[in-house]
Amino acid sequence: MIINKILNVDDYYYDVFMSISESLTGFSVNELQSTGLADIYYKHILGQIEAATFIEFLNTSKTILENSYSQDQLNNAINAEIIADPGMQDMANNIITMWYLGTWEGAYVNDLSYKEGLVWNIMHAHPPGAKQPGFKSWGVKPVNSNS
To answer: Residues 23-41: what's their mean pLDDT?
Structure first.
């Protein structure tokens, strides 16, 4: 039964999920895994939508990833086969939002998802109230400070 297979994180669907997440977010698989949320996000999606819908998205992603030999080909294929299809685009948008903000359809996946959202890396900031920058950090100029 396919549902038992997809819930096994060692299956190739998980690898496809991580690879397409890398392409959609611009962060490497290692960076995504370092959030500690990869398995949780994969399983969360399965709990939120029908497995068949997710599998369709992953099969389309798998085909794109296997048939792309350059970054340009990959970007063009994602635009043509995922972004151009409203259902696939919704799934891609939800996955991007989940990685960046830690939310799925407006609700945080868990407490860690807020802390580990990719948005904080992009902003060179920390999540207020969750990860403090450290003692005496106020005396250090921000990374992109013009002053």
So the answer is: 95
